[in-house]
Amino acid sequence: MDGGPKAASWFSSPPLYLRTAVFLSNQPGPPHLVSGVAQGVSEIVKRAEVIVEREVTLEIMHVVVGREGVALLLHNTGEWKGKLLDEYLTTVCTLREGKIARLDTYISDVPMVDAYFV
User: Fold this and answer.
1) Contacts for 45-49 with beta carbons within 8 Å, 24 or more apart?
2) Domains within the chain, CATH numbers bracketed
3) pLDDT at residue 8 above 70?
């Protein structure tokens, strides 16, 4: 996701399926801008805005589909104010009635993510 016009459009009118979703970043360590629980569209959009502001490039490497959800293996990279981000994570999307009800993220390099987003 880059910070271009498409991102701006997404923030002003997020997809309907995110209106009631819960986004959890399941990582140990100190709280920061993208950790913890984001509940509902406004908190999820705030989190996405931080990711875009920090110039994170998100690459979807694999998508795995299950009966009650979808998992994405992602590779996030970025450079922001001298800090580097190069980490892999898995986002698990739990579906309810065909819509994303919950997103859980699992981080491969917690110290790197902490340093990048603190």
Assistant:
1) 45/11, 45/14, 47/23, 48/1, 48/7, 48/10, 48/11, 49/11
2) 5-117 (3.10.450.50)
3) no
